[in-house]
Amino acid sequence: MKYLFWCANEHLSFRIPEFEAISNIFGLDLIWVHKSSEDPWVILDFPNEDFVQKILSRSISVKYCIELWGDGNTYEELFKRVKSYPSEKVEKYASKNRSFKIYCEAFMKKLSYEERISIIDMYSFLPLKGQVKMKNPDDIYSHFEFSGFDHNNLPETPHNLFFGRCIGSGQRHLITKYSIKSRLFIGNTTMEPTLSLLMANLAKVSKGDLVLDPFVGTGSLILAASEFGGYSFGGDIDYLMMHARTRPSRVGQKKRKKEESMRGNFEQYQLEKYYGDIIVADNSRPPWREIPWFKAIIADPPYGIREPTEKIGTLRENVSISEEHLPQHYPSKISYDLSEIIDDLLNFAATHLELGGRIAFWYPVNREEYNKKKLPSNSSLKLCANCEQILSSHTSRRLLVFEKINNQGCHSENVKTDRVDNKFREHFFNANSLTKKERKERIKEYGHLNLSKDEPQNEEKMST
């Protein structure tokens, strides 16, 4: 049976990996009828609605799903296919005791009241005998239209039309539930809820899993993980952040409230039973027991743009601290190179993840120099997803998702990270120093900003 999933037009590269991750969580086989990251819909063939409900119970990308009764490139073709849909499947929803309504939606276009009424009237051939009920009907039937991506130049008639019985909605209400605006404890770099929830899905966080964020910050990622039943732990080198003593990031707020804290966020959303704990920790010297006990690791490492990249250390030689000063001693910090951060993160995942567990983390890139072959890797980890979020004309960050496949990669010699991406911070600030005229000239000449001044020789520029 064919089911159409009508999806949100955002974070498009996350859509297919999310479907695949959710199907993996529930052990479902995906039979694609229409597989697309660009079109606002995908179509899957499932034996029954139970499979669909499992997808809907987790998906952030999906807005609605319908049992597809018909589709077409014209109204005539659509109605012909709807009329030919097996009558026994239609009749069981057509009794007088079942109320219904017909919902209409168009991509890149707002249908007027008159247009919606006109469309609904065209479905008068349906053998529905029940009462029309606009609020809480027994059944909802959905009509979707797609007219292309240029909302300034839409055709008179849609390119694609779909109709079917609505099965249910995805979990996009969670985006509002976890809105940063209403969250108790936030910071300057708090991850917005859509991406946090998508990361939890791509990391396959399930009920009872132990989850860690080694760069936890204000805990946006572990909060999303706990929404799906993960027991969350976190670490961060920022002592003030871990104790909620940083300056407030909300406009006009001078002092943090007493209840503002990571634990306060979990209590706000009644998730305190999933709150493991957080500690002040250095990613380069992880304090966690060296056994594979985490099912998922999710992280947004610092890039050196809005937050410093630091680790414990000193540039001085032969430094010793007297025993009497040790209890009050605060270790000094040194610069923590981005490539080192990724090396340590992958080594940590290879050591501490269970087999089949996943790590999902953000990796910043200069778009003109991006090459898939130069992504970090580890012999114990298999790359499962590589999703891009464009930040500007010259920079983006990619959510890299790896799954642990063996126990052989627990040593630094098994990690390979491209050192070229150390230039990310330098290129980021170089681009900001260019005038609008200089940007236009460079894009005209090279097709990009060419921040390295030399034409990059990449075989797979901007490949995914």
Automatic annotation (TrEMBL):
Gene Ontology biological-process annotations: methylation; tRNA processing
Q: What is its EC number?
A: 2.1.1.214
Q: Which reaction(s) are listed as its catalytic activity?
A: guanosine(10) in tRNA + S-adenosyl-L-methionine = N(2)-methylguanosine(10) in tRNA + S-adenosyl-L-homocysteine + H(+)
InterPro entries linked: DNA_methylase_N6_adenine_CS (IPR002052), RlmKL-like_Mtase (IPR000241), SAM-dependent_MTases_sf (IPR029063), TRMT11 (IPR016691), TRMT11_N (IPR059073)
| Enzyme class, broadest EC rank | transferase
Entry keyword set: Cytoplasm, Methyltransferase, RNA-binding, S-adenosyl-L-methionine, Transferase, tRNA processing, tRNA-binding
Domain tRNA (guanine(10)-N(2))-methyltransferase TRMT11 N-terminal, chain residue ranges per copy: 1-172
A Gene Ontology molecular function term for this protein is:
tRNA binding
This protein's assembly is summarised as:
Part of the heterodimeric TRMT11-TRM112 methyltransferase complex; this complex forms an active tRNA methyltransferase, where TRMT112 acts as an activator of the catalytic subunit TRMT11.
Of which family is this protein a member? Belongs to the class I-like SAM-binding methyltransferase superfamily. TRM11 methyltransferase family.
Q: What functional role does this protein have?
A: Catalytic subunit of the TRMT11-TRM112 methyltransferase complex, that specifically mediates the S-adenosyl-L-methionine-dependent N(2)-methylation of guanosine nucleotide at position 10 (m2G10) in tRNAs. This is one of the major tRNA (guanine-N(2))-methyltransferases.
Name this polypeptide is given: tRNA (guanine(10)-N(2))-methyltransferase TRMT11
Question: Which species is this record about?
Answer: Lepeophtheirus salmonis (Salmon louse)
